[in-house]
Amino acid sequence: MPIENIPEIYFQKKNEPQDIFIYDFKMTNDVVKSKVNLSMNMFSFLQVGKKQVHFANTSIAVNNQQSLLLKKGNWLWTELLDTDAIYFCKLFFFSEKKLIDFLGKYTNNVKSRKEDVPYFVIENDDYLAAFINSLSSNTFTNHSFSGAILDLKFEEIMLYLLNKYGSAFEHYLHSLISKEVSEFKSIVEGNVHSNLKLEEIAFLCHMSLSTFKRHFIKAYQEPPGKWLQDKRLQKAKNLLLAGDLKASDIYLEIGYNNLSNFSIAFKNKFGMSPTEVSN
């Protein structure tokens, strides 16, 4: 069987990588005659049918009362368990960058433990059913605020499952971070959306500020102050585009001591004031 990469095979255009990507998947054959390789972590939210998912060293059967969180880097193939039925699910892909940002914002700095199981089983409930129904690849196509909405949907499902499954889910999320990501990058990217100062992030990395700056420029090819400011201002823009918050609600969270400095930095980056964006 040939091996195909997902989600790349679902992109309408080549070279359109995204941090979050949704695909409506439908299968009518009883066996998929191909293997797929996951290049991103993925939720598989099953809505119709029953399936058997085969991995390199294990397999699992799920029905429409269950969903799966699948670990990137695995290859798998799927077969239908009801030959007369169809299989329909929503695939929700998310990048490691989004995962690291989320873990830094909402979880403790727990040590990742090795997880040999390439999946986490989710039992569907009324809340998850409503969440799944809200997902559609068409909904987020050519939408002015698609990026901001997808960010909110990602945080929504992650927070709900953290509350539902507690430490078991938290530890599994930490295990999804690639070994290739250095501890330095993990700490930096886990605190992108905190309001920690450079000195405090350097302390978490067990470095002096000068050593931290040298390591940062080597890793990211730009000074840490500018890099962090750009990331935090982009988050501010996404929050304002969502329409529920004003600049006065978020400037402290973004790491600014006063609204005036935040507004000036925001306008310098985006060419418009926070008020213009939120209106």
UniProtKB/TrEMBL annotation:
**An example molecular function term from Gene Ontology annotations:** DNA-binding transcription factor activity
What InterPro entries has UniProt attached to this entry?
ExsA-like_N, Homeodomain-like_sf, HTH_AraC
Give UniProt keywords alphabetically.
DNA-binding, Transcription, Transcription regulation
> Which residue windows are transmembrane per the record?
none
| One family name in Pfam for this protein | HTH_18
Give the superkingdom in one word.
Answer: Bacteria
Q: Where is the HTH araC/xylS-type domain?
A: 182-279
Please report the name of this protein according to its UniProt entry: Helix-turn-helix transcriptional regulator
* Source organism: Gelidibacter salicanalis
